Amino acid sequence: MTTNDFGGVYCAAATPFTQDRSPDHAAFAQHCHALIEEGCDGIALLGTTGEANSLGLKERQELLERVIEAGIAPSRLMPGTAQTSVADTVALTRHAVEAGVKAVVLLPPFYYKCVSDEGLFRAYADIIDQVTDDRLRVILYHIPQISGVAISQALITRLQAAYPGIVIGIKDSSGDLDNMRRTIAECPDCAVMAGADPLMLPLLQSGGAGCITASSNLVAADLRIVFDKWNDPTHQAEVESAQARINAWRELTNAYVQLPTVKTMLARRRGLDSWTRVRPPFIELSDEERASVLTRMEQLEHEDKA
Amino acid sequence: MTTNDFGGVYCAAATPFTQDRSPDHAAFAQHCHALIEEGCDGIALLGTTGEANSLGLKERQELLERVIEAGIAPSRLMPGTAQTSVADTVALTRHAVEAGVKAVVLLPPFYYKCVSDEGLFRAYADIIDQVTDDRLRVILYHIPQISGVAISQALITRLQAAYPGIVIGIKDSSGDLDNMRRTIAECPDCAVMAGADPLMLPLLQSGGAGCITASSNLVAADLRIVFDKWNDPTHQAEVESAQARINAWRELTNAYVQLPTVKTMLARRRGLDSWTRVRPPFIELSDEERASVLTRMEQLEHEDKA
């Protein structure tokens, strides 16, 4: 377990779009309220699943402002605020900190590849120094299969030494449990959050701090059970069946391209077409894919009730 | 040869920084004037070599405005104007078109990976449709080893069919001559520009349209010779020795990480420290690396004169 108290169940929330593909603020607020009711500690909006990198800088700021206006406490929010440049990342991060968010989730600068840890350290240091706000809390974001830029344990250690109490955790979406365990072992002050739902239970058993995941858009209640009861021997069967349900749902989200599949499932769950829409470079599921996903979703709902 | 008349020697210009790492506008304008004197048809500023993705949106716009104010004709400028989102790409592109640039160089949306050609088509189509300006000319940018997102011949064909006279060429920085030849064969209306200097002569011999390269910051005069005389049998020896000099200089730029190496060499060439500075995630060359590069640079200058 980390020496800082950060942890819990966080949803990497998807972003619904209206017919003209603007963010549907009403549908998003409704979703965030529902996620908290379903058991999420908070919402990691504007991440990979949130299509943040398909939104403009102003749209990103507006999405955060509007969801706070709709009554979601900023202390429950952890937006992604990274851009490729320090300058724009500072602007988004400062805006989020001033809005009172719990933390920001920060990708490394992700355009250039094969860069050094020294270069990544300087980028994060520049961002933190230029935001100059004691309220800033940073969750690093390790998702090398998409960003193309890995965050090493050496880099985490160096950042936490330079910015204690500010750099507090990492979202590890590599899907590599061994890497998460190495981080827990080598970076005891770093809260390690699983980016992939099937790893929630094994990660907690290894000393991890919780999750920030895409499937939690759909299975928040089961993640809540796993998080709250994993360490209680009297609830072992309940925890294991919750994790099994999580895994089954997660498997379905990977039937086709994950993002439009999750959003197709959300459209059914929340009863709103805004959820089916994606921005390029993503495309919606085909009618056949959609039908297949919804049929399987019905089966899963039936099994969950059984 | 392509059916459109776009082509020539374009420099993927580096960006100098002052001591506080702001763009050094005076040094940049001086460099652009020198490049044109040295033989460049124009400047592809704000690309990968220009550290565009380490500059904020406002800084990118200001760099373009200031170099035009300093007397570089906008008709010689081809800025990179892509961001990960359509919204910000449209803003940068519209700004550049209104400034009168010759063309813009457009990366595909580069955050998400494994996306479909359909999704990439929609992203480019949205950008072009939303800019809604007949003066727009687009050079696609294929650099999969950095962007992680390739531009296929099928995508080029589809974009050129949908936007004839607007999508006019591609900067192919893959280093893969076979891929460039496939583009020339399959996309006869597409001007294929080499992104790697050693391929200038073989690409021109294959029907390519010229180059947009990093080494042209240093060897523009030799690229001019190759471009102007490659097809004239009476100048074969001159062309081949120009290409050999280009290759030797290019080899030196790859002695260490390319970008800080090119900038170290530019600092000597232009006599200004602003060129040595880079923004994170890049770091400057070490003193030893710098000394080694400058020694070899002196040798190359001596050989060039011999």
From TrEMBL, chains A, B:
<comment type="similarity">
    <text>Belongs to the DapA family.</text>
</comment>
<dbReference type="InterPro" id="IPR002220">
    <property type="entry name" value="DapA-like"/>
</dbReference>
<keyword id="KW-0456">Lyase</keyword>
<dbReference type="GO" id="GO:0008840">
    <property type="term" value="F:4-hydroxy-tetrahydrodipicolinate synthase activity"/>
</dbReference>
<dbReference type="InterPro" id="IPR013785">
    <property type="entry name" value="Aldolase_TIM"/>
</dbReference>
<dbReference type="Pfam" id="PF00701">
    <property type="entry name" value="DHDPS"/>
</dbReference>
<protein>
    <submittedName>
        <fullName>4-hydroxy-tetrahydrodipicolinate synthase</fullName>
        <ecNumber>4.3.3.7</ecNumber>
    </submittedName>
</protein>
